[in-house]
Amino acid sequence: MLKLDGVDTYYGPIHILQKLELEVGSGELVCLLGGNASGKSTTLKTVLGIVKPRSGSVEFDGEDVTGRPTSYRIGKGMAIVPENRRLFAPMSVRENLEMGAYLHGGGTKEDWDRVYTLFPLLHERRAQLAGTLSGGEQQMVAMGRALMSRPKLLLMDEPSMGLAPILVEKNFEIIQQVHESGVAILVVEQNANVSLAIADRGYVLQTGRVVLSGPAAELLRHEDLRKAYLGR
Amino acid sequence: MLLAIWVFYAVYFSPTQGWTFFLQLTVDGIILGSIYALIALGYSMVYGILKLLNFAHGDVAMIGAFIGFGVLTLLGGPLSPAIPVVALVACMFVVAMLGSGFLGLAIERFAYRPLRDAPRIAPLISALGVAFFLENSVLLLFGANYRNYDGYDLISYNGIHLGGSAGVFVSYLGVMVITGALLLMVGLVALVRWTRFGKAMRAVSFDREAAAMMGIDPDRVIATTFFVGSALGGAAGVMFGLVYSQIYYLVGFLAGLKGFTAAVVGGIGSIPGAMLGGLLVGLVESWAKGYLNGNVADLVVFGILIGVMLIRPQGLLGTPALQKV
Predict the structure, then answer these.
(1) Which of A45, B79, B83, B203 is the most exposed place for a label (fewest CB within 10 A)?
(2) Strand-pair partners of A22
(3) Contacts of B318 (CB under 8 A, 6+ apart)
(4) How far apart are CA B179 and CA B89, in angstroms?
(5) CB atoms B215 and A102 under 8 Å
(6) Distance of alpha carbon A23 from alpha carbon B221, whole angstroms
(7) Strand B147-148 to B246-247 pairing
(8) B320 to chain A, minimum CA–CA distance in Å?
(9) A136 pLDDT band (50/70/90 cuts)?
(10) Residue B13 pLDDT more than 70?
(11) Distance of CA A106 to CAs A101, B99, B255, B288, Å?
(12) Are strands A78-81 and A153-157 parallel, antiparallel or unpaired?
């Protein structure tokens, strides 16, 4: 589904991603772990084409999309739940969801039904301005907005950030639910525990390099990872 | 508040007439204000999406006025139009709006887009450069002469007398300007509120990168915004020419400055604010002309700009700028 091959990304003179290799199979749930400034967000931006790699390639759904603009990749089936949600605060919930389906002409009835069934609360709040919702509700809007575009690959940037523990758990339940409906998911997280618990595979990123990768169950038991992330 | 006291004082102690005079000035002010509001909308839309004060906007309106004049001349002039007047005026508006719209697209593409990631002062200077470029291009092509627009000849000197022949007079031209501006504004509000483009425009204004993450192409949305804003400016230019009966290469400067004042007083970035600001500037200018004199009218208008900035820096309908964290 998604394949990064030898990707080098720079911000000006600073070398952020170094020969990054990463793969997400179709229908797979992969998590990308790493601390601050490890290059997690840059990886997602490279996948989306918001930053362009200096070398290496990004392959999506059997096609090399390295030189393609963001809108092309979204149209081809990527969607993102950005870090801090990045909702359009002065627009209504309904309009926010509509923006998710921007390339599909605002969404078909099935798209709306699917999202409103998953999040009945959003239907109730559809006329409310997104900026006036609580953190947990905003997370639902961000998730619903991404799902409006019928993604084949869902990218999630730090979904647990800034949420109460109970909401984090709820959030990951929903991620799992979406995963079970056949969508491939790449979750970027600092919270190794929750994300590895639902993931198939995981990568650990440190200063722009993959230092560890493997099946999630293995990573959970891995000595170094436990020391670095799980505090045990 | 001060404004209300001043108007009340002026009406009661005016050496000239009473309420009829005041209402006449008000009607003239609304006509003028409709034009300023259209110009202000262009400023506000561009500021909303790029945080750029497009100082070339007044001159885009001036170009619109010249395009309208060109159409008028080609089709026989105001005294002997080759086609029915309604069709002629419609032609002038459509061609001027399209011309100004495409000019706006070109300005954005060549003068602002390359500076998109530069410090904010750079596109501002570029905007001033474009303003001088447009003014001097017209000077070079058409000379410094005034051109006779003669909107009253074209549309007729007649009009509606409200309250008898001694009452308030609204020329047909004035009726046309007010209705035209109103229709364009209603159209714009509908466009921004309900269409796919309008929603994308609001999304890009609020958070360009997040909009891009939804698959919206910000460059296209920004370009379309320039087209729409400039087309409104072009329409305002034609109205300006019709109402004042003459144009020359610098008309865009003062009209643009008044439109800018209107946008800032109303709250730059806010569409209803631009409309309210335009109306206010038009009314104040007209009252000041009537009760004080023509020379100090601009002084009063720009004085109000400074006053509003001191008391309410975000403008009447603007929201205070929040620092995004």
Answers:
(1) B79
(2) A4
(3) B266, B267, B268, B269, B270, B273
(4) 14
(5) yes
(6) 33
(7) antiparallel
(8) 14
(9) confident
(10) no
(11) 5, 31, 39, 49
(12) parallel
Pairing of strands A55-60, A2-11: antiparallel
Contacts of A145 in chain B (CB under 8 A): 214
- CATH number of the structural domain B16-143+160-309: 1.10.3470
Q: Which residue of B lies nearest to A82 if distances are taken between CA atoms?
A: B210
Residue A232: band (very low, low, confident or very high) from pLDDT cuts 50, 70, 90 = very low
pLDDT 10s digits, B209-227 = 999 999 999 999 999 999 9
Residue B11 has pLDDT above 90, yes or no: no
A228 versus B194: the higher-pLDDT residue is B194
Q: Is A86's CB within 8 Å of B214's CB? A: no
Closest approach of chain A CAs to the CA of B202, in angstroms? 8
Residue B16 predicted with pLDDT over 80: no
Nearest to A98 among B199, B211, B217 (CB): B199
Among residues 148-207 of chain B, which lie with CB inside 8 Å of chain A? 196, 199-200, 202-203, 206-207
Q: How many CA atoms lie within 13 A of A7 on its CB side?
A: 32
- Give the number of residues written for chain A: 232
Q: Enter the ipTM.
A: 0.91
Q: Where are the domains of chain B?
A: 16-143+160-309
Q: A206 or A232, which is more confident?
A: A206
The helix/strand/coil state of B117 is coil
Nearest to B64 by CA among B94, B108, B44: B94
Q: At a CB cut-off of 8 Å and minimum separation 6, what does A85 contact?
A: A138, A139, A141, A142
Residue linked to tokens 């739940």: A81
Contact B213 A88 (CB under 8 A): no
Model pTM score: 0.90
A154: chain B residues, CB-CB within 8 Å: none
Task: Provide the shortest C-alpha distance from residue A216 to chain B (in Å).
Answer: 28
- Any idea what DSSP says for residue B115? G
Does residue B323 have a pLDDT over 60? no
pLDDT for the residue numbered B324: 47
Best mutation target, B49, B196, B213, B224, to test chain A (most A CBs within 10 A): B213
Closest Cα in chain A to B218: A71
Identity of residue A22: L
- The Cα–Cα gap between A124 and A119 comes to 9
B98 to chain A nearest CA, in Å?
26
Residues of B with Cβ-Cβ distance to A80 under 8 angstroms = 213
Contact A142, A84 (CB under 8 A): no
On whether the CB atoms of residues A16 and A9 are closer than 8 A, the answer is yes
For residue B282, the distance in angstroms to the closest alpha carbon of chain A comes to 30
CA distances from A175 to A14, A170, B14 (A): 33, 9, 73
pLDDT-derived band at B318, boundaries 50, 70, 90: confident
